[in-house]
Amino acid sequence: MARKNKKFSAKISTPSAKNSGYSEGGASHNNKSLKGYNPKKLGYKADIGANLSTLRDRSADLAINTPVGTAAINTSTTHTVGAGLNVFPKPKFQILGISAEDTRAWARKVRAEFDLWAESKDCDIYRKNNLYDMQSIAYQGYLTDGDSFTVFRRKPSTPDMPYTLRLQLIEGNRVSNPLTSSTYVTGDPTGVEALNPDNGNRILNGVEIDTDGAIVAYWVSNQVPGEPITSLLTAWARVEAYGKRTSIPNVLQISNDTRPEQYRGVPYLAPVIETLKQVYRYTNAELTSAIIKSYFALFFTEAVTNSGSLNDMLADNGVDDPTEPVVDVSEYNLGPGTLNALPKGVDVKSVDASNAQSTFEVFSTQLIKQVGAALNQPYEVLMKNFNSSYSASRAAMLQAWEEYKLRRKWFARDFCQPIYEVWLMEAVANGRIEAPGFFDDPLIRKAWCNADWFGPTMSILDPVKDMNGSTLRVENGVSTREREAAEMTGTDLEENIAQLAFEKQLMEKYGMGLADAVNPSVGSKSTTKGGEEDE
Question: How far, in Å, CA of 528 to CA of 351, rounded?
Answer without folding.
Answer: 73
